Amino acid sequence: MMPRNRPLRRGMSRPYLRAARAALRLERGMRQSLYAAHKMMVGGEYLAAADQFEHLASEAMEKGMEIRAPFLYIQASRARLHSGQVQASLADLRQGLGLLAQSNRWVAVSRHGERAIIEYEQFGYTAQAVEVRHWLRATIPADAPGLAIDQSIPRPDPTQAQLPAKCPYCGGNVLPDEVNWVDPTSAECVYCGSVIRIAD
Ligand SMILES: [Zn+2]
Q: Of 59, 89, 107, 198, which sits with the fewest C-beta atoms within 10 Å of its C-beta?
């Protein structure tokens, strides 16, 4: 096997990066609630899951974890969609995408918006899918950096394929095109901020 090169980040030491990342990780109690919410979702308890994700999202906001809150709102939106509450689902989605847009995280806005459109269409909510499409067009700047790459189909990467399907810390789905790669062997869960390592 070829040795992997680990790129060094300019100006920041590894301990500093570790500490910076730890500050953006959900605390244990919240991770446990999140684990329960993801489990409810898998078990088809969509209403309870939606309540829990919304609660976690507002708790994340209160604690200054704006980096986590959008994904919790988006997951709440998905749970509302599954439970047939399409207007509440749209409200949660707008909240999540809006927070991402406020911090100019356009790649994430596009990716999660596009995914929501597909899900609304799958559920037969065509009007809502169109509404999200219009919102994305009106909101994402044409010159937003990174979008040209983002909108292409994610290229298969053997490293990404080795990530576990679910985050061992919060139970959230680990999607290779969604996680933030920390280095070639580890990635950060979008929901809880834990660092997940690829299987050896
Ligand atoms: Zn996680």
A: 198
Which amino acid is residue 15, in one-letter code? Answer: P
Residues of the chain with pLDDT under 50: 1-3, 149-156
Q: How far apart are CA 187 and CA 45, in angstroms?
A: 29
Query: How remote is the CA of residue 31 from the centroid of ligand 1, in Å?
Result: 7
Number of alpha carbons in the 13 Å side-chain half-sphere of residue 21: 21
CA of 126 to the centre of ligand 1 (A): 31
164 CA to centre of ligand 1 in angstroms: 11
C-alpha to C-alpha distance for 57 and 106, rounded to whole angstroms: 20
Rg (CA), the chain: 17
B/e letters for 99-108, b = 16+ CB within 10 Å, e = fewer, are: bbbeeebbbb
pTM: 0.83
Q: How far is the CA of 76 from the centre of ligand 1 (A)?
A: 15
Domains and CATH numbers, the chain: 26-142 (1.25.40.10), 155-200 (no CATH)
**pLDDT computed for residue 152 by the predictor:** 43
